Here is the input.
Amino acid sequence: MAVRNAFYAQSGGVTSVINASACGLIEAARSRPDRMGKVFAGRNGIIGALQEDLIDTSLESDAAIAALRHTPSGAFGSCRYKLKDLETHKAQYERLIEVFRAHDIGYFFYNGGGDSADTCLKVSQLAEKMGYPIQAIHIPKTVDNDLPITDCCPGFGSVAKYIATSVREASFDVASMSKTSTKLFVIEVMGRHAGWIAAAGGLASSEDCDLPILILFPEVPFEEEKFLAKVDETIKRHGYCSVVVSEGVKDGAGKFLSDQGLKDAFGHAQLGGVAPVIANLCREKLGYKYHWAVADYLQRAARHIASRTDVEQAYAVGRAALEFALAGKNSVMPAIIRKADDPYTWEIGSAALSEVANVEKMMPADFISEDGFGITEKCRRYLLPLIGGEDYPPYRNGLPDYVKLANVAVPRKLSGDFQI
Amino acid sequence: MAVRNAFYAQSGGVTSVINASACGLIEAARSRPDRMGKVFAGRNGIIGALQEDLIDTSLESDAAIAALRHTPSGAFGSCRYKLKDLETHKAQYERLIEVFRAHDIGYFFYNGGGDSADTCLKVSQLAEKMGYPIQAIHIPKTVDNDLPITDCCPGFGSVAKYIATSVREASFDVASMSKTSTKLFVIEVMGRHAGWIAAAGGLASSEDCDLPILILFPEVPFEEEKFLAKVDETIKRHGYCSVVVSEGVKDGAGKFLSDQGLKDAFGHAQLGGVAPVIANLCREKLGYKYHWAVADYLQRAARHIASRTDVEQAYAVGRAALEFALAGKNSVMPAIIRKADDPYTWEIGSAALSEVANVEKMMPADFISEDGFGITEKCRRYLLPLIGGEDYPPYRNGLPDYVKLANVAVPRKLSGDFQI
Here is the structure.
């Protein structure tokens, strides 16, 4: 069998462990020089393929590739760029094939979320439709945890651990101050469509560490009176309260709360941020002194407090993708299959891309408590293993020692540019 | 010599290592039962003394006290409550003495910042003015790093490590996304008066990990045109840019930028938050897509990424306070004396409270780079040792295992309440 090269690209919002998947894939490829040629990475994702801007990962040392396992972000650059459908935007696909052919690329590894799974599926269909043999494997990644079939998504567990830890720490802080000062702490977390990350905030409180935490899920329409009553009752009972609010929380009419909120002094700009809106509402209506935080990128980049489980799974799906390719598979995604909750065990299975693309996995209704402000025991059982274990990066001079790759370009073989 | 009891209170905003000072003090006291009686902690700080709401720390196990070393926040509760001066508010001081006398308290340990040092000094003067023998020792604590004489303040090093790490991580993230999406990341950090914490953001970039970071210090009046030009130039050169903005940054007229910023949709409320103001300015004027974060309490509660140096120093000043008391000292504060930068060595010295109280240590002008947007090598030499080393808390079920003390009240001996 001829040894062909592989293309790998990172897609969409990056995570603290997407590079661990790259590490798994590249290390697995390096271990099989008899079967696998070079791994070329797209500079800034799929755009790198369209523009024939490929990175030669074979020029990176083994140590640099190994360091990807503990380095957050997308080491080769990512992009938000969705390929349109095959029929109406044929030029894009023809260009991909032109580039793949020029560099003898027989394997397409796409590391991303739902949109990327769809792109990956389309690329896998190129073989038939355009007569170019290529195997396309999708590697799951998304902090949103919304891919179907796989039990969880690499990237999510580490965000969950960061949020659960941060909410616990901030709650301890507020508790200390609540007698004379701050009584309410509001933290805004990611998750525009599904409340998985917000739910993780609920883990901050546990049987051995009870903390008063309320969650505002995107799945639960915001009811002002009910929420204010709950905050008031919680603070009256515990002396303080922490609120975890999803950026995607909406009112009864389906409008994002963040969209009705902040304007600058001139009244013309919408600045985003639902945490200050919620905090201010509580002060206006209940009179409580508050603090608020917006974690934003910090949560998905926080490799310093990654979940060991998450890192291991991210690495494993990267390795599995390579093995799937060598096994001749096409149009598939390595999926994480949960075998048991406690002690947690899992294995890698295989999901057909046709069943993954464009399907969004929402939080089950029975993961949210009856009053809508907390998580159920079932949710806790699901989430807890995903934040299990620590996997600290090495430090140098007090700071995490993250790797920056050389990212040397593969010499171009085609003439002409491709406009994206 | 008669064995008398001690009073310990936490004051002002808490930190991730103030409990390490409590741990040092209490462990030292337990090791000298021949000289030191019980340590009574004020519930919610000095208010606990005024209201005779004392916590009997002798009822906590050795393991629980040891766990304070890795637990953030104020385990006994803190407060924002400044004692007024001795002459006009004599009743407060008389009440303190009444409570101290009732519980045979001969030592007053006050763990806080500049205001607390002032209170501690006043209490130390009670002995002479009101005929009650008491030794008052101040234990330094403040994330603001603004106490004089001591080279640094316990609490600061861990915030600095958190901010430097977070800025590095978020910068890696933005770099990945910058080709098609976010090009600017803005993070707001604490420090209303001095830019120590903002300066720590500059550590994210180092010789071995160069990152484009701009800092907005409270010490440098904000000039919109100059700032926008710098952001534009930085993004044009590096493709992206991270901005660390102190909550205390002011315009040329001395007005806080955060005060001119956010209003809610009804225009009546000031919501705080300078990060969105800065981010929005850059979008309006330069057109860059941004993300912003406000770390707020997360930064000072982040025990999970505490600086080992900071933890050791916090513990050491707690122990030293007890030793100072046993040595008969009064009106003093253990201070951290730097012996060398690299390798970093330090020891505990003694500072007179009269020289500490009401003196704010600002950032030296030569710590800020000439253009006003960065730190100098001198600043870096000062800061780097303070974030040195890691000191991870134990984990349980994926979360830091922080201790909650029983905090059993000492039976009251006085009748009547004291209104604060």
Notes: The domain at 156-301 of chain A is CATH 3.40.50.460 (Rossmann fold). Residues 100 and 184 of chain A are 55 Å apart (CA to CA). Chain A is about 35% helix and 20% strand.
